[in-house]
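Ops channel
N.P.: pipeline sanity check, posting one input/output pair.
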C-alpha cells in the first residue's frame, strides 16, 4: 500500500542516540560528547531549508546544554522548543516528552518529523500521529507498509527523507526525483520499444501483430484521494467495454504549487500498484508543478488491443437484448463522498462504520473482470461503463450509441443502502451520481441467464434492469410499478454540487 504523503514543517530529535551518543541519561562522560556522525550536516541542511528544529530529552537542562557544547553547525538557541526534564512532570516518560514537544511546536502533529533511536519514544511518536523515524537497526522489518515508521541507519539518510516532505517549486519534476520514481517500475512488456525515462518525450510500442488498437483518454478531477488508482481504472474500464485488453497507459500529472515530492510519489505508487494488478504498462507521460491547478489532476491515455472479430461495437445492439448492470449505482460517487466529506456525513448522523464501509467502495470501481466475462461469453452486444452523470446519463449514452430506445424498470435498479443514505443526507440523487464500478451490458436474451450466472460466480452482483426496444432512435422509456414514469436527467453530475 502506498505511503501517505508527508509535508514537513519541523524536525524533532530525541537528543540521546541521534544527535549525540552517550551510554544513557544517568551516565554523562567527563567531557562533552562529540556530535554523532552526520549530525552537523543534517542540522545545516534543515537550517538551509528553513525548517524548524526541536530537541526532546528526559535529561535535565544542564545536561542537554552540555551535550550540545561541541556542535558548530547549531547552538541550543537554534532549537525551538527544547524539551528537557524541567519541562515535564516528575518521573516523566516518553509519552509526556513527545506530547510536550508537539504541543510546543503548535503545528499539526503530522507535519512534525520525529527522529529517535529509542523504541519507546518511537511508539509514542506513532501514537501522537507525528511522522516517525527510527534511527538504528529496524525494530519492525523494512517499513514498507503505509503505517510503518520510516527507518534510517545513518543520519545522512534523513536528508532524502526530509526532501520528500518539502514543497516543490513550479515547473517540471526535478530529473533526479523523476528518475528515482520511474526506477520503481519494471518494464518487461516486449512490445514496448522505448521505455519512459529522463529525456524520453515519447513512447514507442510495437503493435504489428495486433488487429485492432483501442484508445481512450480521461482526466481525473473529482477525486483527490487515491487519484492514481482512479486514473488507471477509469481509463481501463472504457477499454474493457470494447472487449479489448487494457495494456498501455500514458499519464499527464499536474500538481499544485506547494506539493511535496512524497505527495507526488504517493500518486506514482498508486499508478504503479494498480497497473501491476491489472497487467498494464505505464509507458510514458509528463509531470509538472503549476499554479494552473489547485489540486492534483491526472489525465490518462490508455491503449488496448483486441482481435477484430472480437471487437464489441454498440451498433450491434438489437431489439430484445436484455440490459444488465453490475454491482449497483454510484459505486465511485459513494467512495469519493465518503473519503472527501466524511466529517460532514458524521455530523449529519452517519456512523463511522458506515462511512468506512462506503470508503471501501473504491476497491470495486474496476469493471475489467465482468467486461472480460461478457466479452468471452459471445452473447454481449454492447457494453458501457457508468461514469460522470451517473446511471441516468450512461443509459442515455448507451441508447444513442446503439441507435435504439431502452425500456428500463426503475424498481429493478440496485442501489446500495450506504449510497441511498449518503444521498438522502446530502440532498442528491443516486441516479445522477458518478458511477464507475457499474458496467452496463446489453446481451442476447438467449444468453442472458448464463452470462448473469457466470458474473455472479466471479463474486460480482448483476441485475437485469430492462431491454432494448424495437423502435430505432434514442431515449429511455422508464416504468415504475409497471406504469410509465419520467426518466431523470442531470445537466451536471450530482457530485459537483458538493465541491
Amino acid at each position: 500500500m502506498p505511503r501517505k504523503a508527508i509535508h514537513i514543517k519541523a524536525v524533532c530529535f530525541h537528543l540521546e542516540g541521534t544527535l549525540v551518543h552517550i551510554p544513557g541519561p544517568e551516565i554523562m562522560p567527563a567531557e562533552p560528547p562529540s556530535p554523532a556522525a552526520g549530525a552537523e550536516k543534517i542540522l545545516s541542511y534543515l537550517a538551509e531549508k528553513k525548517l524548524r528544529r526541536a530537541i526532546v530529552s528526559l535529561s535535565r537542562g544542564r545536561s542537554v546544554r552540555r551535550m550540545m557544547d561541541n556542535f558548530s553547525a547549531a547552538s541550543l538557541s537554534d532549537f525551538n522548543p527544547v524539551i528537557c526534564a524541567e519541562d515535564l512532570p516528575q518521573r516523566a516518560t516518553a509519552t509526556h516528552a513527545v506530547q510536550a514537544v508537539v504541543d510546543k511546536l503548535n503545528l499539526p502533529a503530522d507535519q512534525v518529523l520525529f527522529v529517535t533511536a529509542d523504541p519507546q519514544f518511537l511508539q509514542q511518536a506513532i501514537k501522537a500521529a507525528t511522522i516517525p523515524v527510527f534511527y538504528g537497526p529496524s525494530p519492525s522489518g523494512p517499513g514498507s507498509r503505509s503505517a510503518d515508521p520510516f527507518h534510517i541507519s545513518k543520519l545522512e539518510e534523513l536528508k532524502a527523507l526530509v526532501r520528500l516532505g518539502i514543497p516543490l517549486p513550479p515547473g517540471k519534476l526535478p530529473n533526479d526525483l523523476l528518475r528515482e520514481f520511474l526506477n520503481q517500475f519494471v518494464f518487461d512488456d516486449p512490445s514496448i520499444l522505448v521505455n519512459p525515462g529522463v529525456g524520453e518525450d515519447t513512447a514507442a510500442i510495437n503493435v504489428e501483430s495486433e488487429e485492432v488498437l483501442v484508445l481512450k483518454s480521461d482526466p481525473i478531477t473529482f477525486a483527490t484521494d487515491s487519484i492514481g488508482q482512479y486514473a488507471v481504472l477509469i481509463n481501463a474500464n472504457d477499454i474493457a467495454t470494447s472487449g479489448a485488453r487494457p495494456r498501455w497507459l500514458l499519464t499527464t500529472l499536474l500538481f499544485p504549487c506547494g506539493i511535496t515530492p512524497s505527495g507526488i510519489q504517493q500518486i506514482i505508487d498508486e499508478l504503479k500498484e494498480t497497473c501491476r494488478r491489472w497487467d498494464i504498462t505505464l509507458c510514458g507521460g509528463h509531470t509538472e508543478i503549476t499554479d494552473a491547478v489547485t489540486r492534483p489532476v491526472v489525465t490518462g491515455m490508455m491503449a488496448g488491443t483486441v482481435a477484430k472479430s472480437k471487437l464489441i461495437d454498440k451498433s450491434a445492439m438489437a431489439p430484445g437484448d436484455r440490459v444488465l448492470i453490475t454491482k449497483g449505482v454510484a459505486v465511485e460517487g459513494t467512495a469519493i463522498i465518503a473519503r472527501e466529506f466524511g466529517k460532514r456525513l458524521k455530523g449529519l448522523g452517519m456512523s463511522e462504520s458506515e462511512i468506512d464501509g462506503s470508503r471501501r467502495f473504491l476497491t470495486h470501481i474496476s469493471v475489467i473482470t465482468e467486461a472480460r466475462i461478457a466479452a468471452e461469453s459471445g452473447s454481449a452486444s454492447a457494453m458501457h461503463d457508468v461514469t460522470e452523470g451517473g446511471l441516468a446519463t450512461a443509459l442515455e449514452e448507451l441508447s444513442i450509441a446503439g441507435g435504439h430506445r431502452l425500456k428500463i424498470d426503475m424498481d429493478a435498479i440496485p442501489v446500495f443502502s450506504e449510497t441511498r443514505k449518503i444521498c438522502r443526507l446530502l440532498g442528491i440523487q443516486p441516479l445522477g451520481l458518478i458511477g464507475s464500478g457499474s458496467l452496463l451490458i446489453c446481451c442476447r436474451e438467449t444468453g442472458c441467464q448464463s452470462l448473469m450466472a457466470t458474473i455472479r460466480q466471479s463474486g460480482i452482483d448483476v441485475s437485469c434492469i430492462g431491454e432494448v426496444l424495437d423502435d430505432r432512435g434514442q431515449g429511455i422509456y422508464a416504468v415504475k410499478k409497471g406504469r410509465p414514469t419520467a426518466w431523470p436527467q442531470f445537466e451536471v453530475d450530482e457530485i459537483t454540487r458538493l465541491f
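N.P.: looks fine end to end. Confidence is low (pLDDT under 50) at residues 140-145.
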